[in-house]
Amino acid sequence: MPGRTKLLSGTETPWSGTRLLENHGISKNGFLPEEEPVRRLPNPYYAPWEFVLDDLPSLIKKRTIRKAMERMSVLETTKLHTEGEWRRAYVILSFLAHAYIWGDERASELLPPQISVPYLQVSKHFDLPPVATYVALNLWNFACSGPDLRDLDSVHALHTFSGTEDESWFFSVSVAMEAEGAYIIPIMVRALEAIGRRDYSTIIRSLDEMAICMGRLGKLLDRMNERCDPMVFYHQIRPFLAGSKNMGAAGLPNGVLYEDEHGVCEWKQLRGGSNGQSSLIQFFDVVLGVEHKSAGSIAPVTLANTGTAQPTCFHQEVRSYMPAPHREFLRRVSHMGDLKKLASEDATTEEHAQLKLSFQAATQALGDFRNRHMQIVTRYIVVPSRKQIRLRTVNLATASSLFERGRGGELTGTGGTALIPFLKQTRDETDVSIEEADVPREARLLCDARGKSIFIGDCAPLSLFQTIRQIVTTRVDPNAFTPQNSRVSMLENSTSSPLILDTSNAPHIDPASVERLVASFISVTSGLVDLFGSICLSDDIFAWVTNNDTPKDAVSAVNYLVLAIGSQSADEEFAVEYFQYGKALAFSRLGGDLGIETVQVFALVTLYMLRACQINGSFLFFGIAARAAYSIGLHRTEVNSRFGAEVHAQRDRLWKSLRVLDLFLSISMGRPPSIDGIDCTVPCRASDADGQEKFDLLNASVQILSITEEIVLEVYSRRKISLPLTEGISRQLRDWSNRWLSRLKRIVAEPNQEGGAEVIGACQAMSSYYYAVMLVARPFLMYELCKRLPDNSTTVNISSGGNENSGRARLANACIDAACLMAESVLELVNRRLLDRRMPLIVSWLFASSLVLGVGLLGGFGRSILEKYARMSITALEYFARDDTHAVQYSLIAKSLLSSALKYLQRKDTDERLRIAESSSQLFGLIPSEERLRGEDFTPADSNESSTETANFFGADAAQSSLNHQLLASPFHDIDPALLSLGCSLGPTSGASFPNRDHQDQTDHVFGALNLFPLLDGNGHIDLAHYL
Predict the structure, then answer these.
(1) Phi, psi dihedral angles at 721 (to 5 degrees)
(2) How far apart are CA 991 and CA 1011, in angstroms?
(3) pLDDT tens digits, one per residue of 179-228
(4) How many CB atoms lie within 10 A of CB 1026?
């Protein structure tokens, strides 16, 4: 086995370690073993372990790793003889254990006895924890093809999880660093021994050599990016290195359950492998007297919440993850002498003064090394965590990305530490370049019908209306919105009934109406919820109605509420009666046992109140449904699976229904959701035997609303936009469109005989997709609007809107196109009489599309076509307004916006015609000079031609949309590269131009005089605080 023989730079002193080194397993390779690790267990008894390990990357990729291990027998460890074989067993079982835990979409909280039993025994043999430690991954997992372990190019890992060169290189860098640092160990031991006899010369030479050694280690660390790609590391390697401590967000809230040879099971929370477990790095700290106090906690630990003394320091704790001889060696070294104390004493001689300088230089070198490590962490963890790659898997990579993207908490290290704060605390100097400045948030408080203030978030359609109203009234028409349609009284229906808890008189139900009412319920909730799975709801409720002795229980409450929702559009009087009684029953049973019916009943209350335009009440009652769902474990599919296949499917679908309701309430009102998807294991995708996604309207809705939630979190909560963010969101939207949009459009165009419910569900899912596109592109549309409008309401901007091929203009047009497509698709179903008049999701997103179309018209994005689609949206809103009080207000707002836009455009056309006439009349004297001076109105022949007829636009055989382009497949497929390129700036010579300088100054005034476009200059972010 090759080893390091140099002791001091430039010398050829043979290795002559002291007895201390020999007794504590310190070889000529430092903390690496003297000989290369055993590459295969010689006894064929252990062949099953070796075979699985040989095929590990392939089994992980195929998601069959767990089945492969579960087919193995529980092997005994009695056939392991040499220490090399025991080490080999520890390495094998560490890889197998972590592959089992992290090798599927969800982490496994249970380690099967085939792994746990021998793993516990082997770990006990070494006094090491049963987890993939730095020892297992690096110190005992390498081979060398050359004469020197310090030669990184000749080192490779014996085993990896991913099978990639990137992972082998990642492990090999640590091995080469351990070998490079081996020679400094005896040198520094001699320095410590020299303290007692004040041998300054030996100490100085040792400290100087240590500084040189740290520089070499840093150079090796810098080579990490030669063959290890950050994205490969972050997504394919790092998740398998994670332990089970502080990994709740990654799917292990309790740790991992280990079973021993006696069948006794025990939960263990252990730290995963990290370089913090390197004995070499801790040796440097010990020698230099560096003291670490951080416990590496995710959350602060105090005396109050532990009831104990200060928690164990992380660096002290992870010594138990080192081989027992090594940690004992560190303990012995810490008592040999105190270089730090010696260096802090007043210098009495020249040599002592030089020692102080050498000590400072060595300490600085260690700090520089940690700075380099922080840069590696930034490149390989922090940056990838910000890139939006949608994965179904829940592991350390996806959990860290969610935290970094603004859901709270810190990035977690593989060792379970709060990564960035921990590393900052352990280094001398910190690199602050990874920090982001906070952007102030602006909330809106609007008044409801009773004058009470209600919070509306920035992503809500109502918030968009408030922004548009401010712009239009200050820059286009001060009287644009009349009081009845500018006050936001639609937040809560003023006729909402008080809470009545009387259950003494049950309302009468006509059995003959049950089938019709249940069919209506299923139809209006299609694509929104599926609360009952495969249950034949109509038969069950009919049997319940005809039962002479109907109990007053949660099931009865559910049935009354189903009938109430089914009656809302046909007979509101009966609907109110059923609802009040069902709600009273629900509250009378709330103090009893919780079950599926509890969740169903309050989800139904939420649905009813949404359809009754009582959105704040629905928001309140949904919280009860969400808490009840968590209480019975609906969010965990493994819990649901314990109830049999049919109930499992019903419980999963019930949870997904809650997710849709929650996301709609959250997004439509701009409020935080009640459900956190991080701890949820219920899948929202299902594939058939051919690997194709099964058609499921509920899954389609969950998926698109989840993407919309991400837009809210990334753009509207953080108020920043970046290249990775834009790319990630557009990729997700295209992916959803490719999988779902054509199928949904076929259902809408060619419904089967009983396809009314499917058509409505398809329309709801498509509407959510169109709204997601509008939401992500909305900031660009608002910017374009302000750039194109005049600085005040008394003037018009005659110049054109600018470069329609620019990236920002294309994104603005994508927003408008999505609004057009939504208005067209909804109106088509309205004309076919397929939509109920109480559809809160469609109405909310349709209102947003009407605002976008009005803005597009106002901004000059195409008068004739956008006026047509704006009138389409208004007609659709008026259809819903017959039963929906929100739609009444929305249609009035849309009409007012359309009217203001048309008046502005007519005034703009008139002024433009006057300007042209003023110039052309001078050629032949067409207009007397005195009339020109008086400024009489001049109306060209066609200036009064505006589309006032709507019937021709909205017939059942209306022409297909003129938007037959690539939007359906890719809303962002053709973005100007200049928009999405880093490092560009908008300087005087950039080629950017605006209609006139005064106009640009006004735009700068509105948006804070920021250099916004191209969007991604500098650090790749812009502040969207004023655009939303």
Answers:
(1) -135, 140
(2) 14
(3) 999 999 999 999 999 999 999 999 999 999 999 999 999 999 999 989 99
(4) 16
